[in-house]
């Protein structure tokens, strides 16, 4: 079963990558914050084991919570950048496809007569009438004069 090409798939994929990148920063900051709380418990236990009368104050809890939040946020931003970069690559492919798609004008090919051709003045490659640029060297092609390629005129 052949699958038909759908150019909207790439756009949807890029949109999904951007949404995932935005969620990832928030999610990783939240996870970093939540993981810092058990770290505080371990720190408090170690301090208490060394000196049962010592107390680990709220300042340490706040410090570790903010450190976990910052580390999670930084990690999330790095991963989100990778997702955004992939989205940009995908959008670049979409733009390349749009720029290189060449519709064949109705006047370029009429049934029963040979197709009209343009020749690149720089590299001498041939292209259908209506083509604006050479596909090999990028040189602008001259406009086709009326009747080009017709044998009976």
Brief summary of the model shown:
This protein is mostly helical and 153 residues long. Helices cover 56% and strands 4% of the residues.
| Tally of alpha and pi helices | 2
What is the overall shape?
rod-shaped
Q: On the 0-100 scale, what is the average pLDDT?
A: 79
Structural class: mainly alpha
* Major sheet characteristics: 2 strands, antiparallel
Radius of gyration: 32 Å
Estimate nothing, just give the exact number of structural domains: 2
Distance between the termini: 47 Å
User: Helical content, roughly?
Assistant: 55-70%
Approximately how much beta-strand content do the residues carry? under 5%
Number of strands: 2
Strand order of the largest sheet: 1-2
Supply the key terms:
153 residues, 2 domains
How is this fold's topology laid out?
Blueprint lengths: L7 H43 L7 H43 L16 E3 L6 E3 L25
Any overview of this molecule?
This protein is mainly alpha-helical and 153 residues long. It has two domains: 8-100, no CATH class; 105-144. Helix content is 56%, strand content 4%. It contains two helices and two strands. The chain has helices at residues 8-50, 58-100; strands at 117-119, 126-128. Strand 1 (117-119) and strand 2 (126-128) form a beta hairpin. The protein is rod-shaped, with a radius of gyration of 32 Å.
């Amino acid at each position: 079963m052949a699958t038909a090409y759908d150019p909207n798939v790439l756009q949807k994929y890029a949109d999904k990558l951007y949404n995932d990148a935005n969620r990832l920063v928030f999610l990783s900051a939240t996870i970093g914050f939540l993981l810092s709380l058990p770290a505080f418990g371990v720190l408090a236990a170690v301090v208490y084991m060394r000196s049962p009368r010592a107390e680990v104050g709220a300042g340490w809890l706040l410090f570790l919570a903010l450190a976990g939040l910052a580390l999670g946020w930084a990690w999330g931003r790095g991963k989100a950048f990778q997702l955004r970069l992939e989205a940009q690559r995908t959008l670049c492919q979409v733009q390349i496809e749009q720029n290189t798609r060449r519709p064949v004008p109705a006047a370029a090919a009429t049934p029963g007569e040979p197709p009209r051709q343009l020749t690149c003045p720089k590299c001498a490659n041939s292209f259908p009438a209506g083509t604006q640029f050479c596909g090999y060297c990028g040189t602008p092609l001259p406009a086709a004069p009326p009747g080009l390629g017709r044998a009976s005129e």
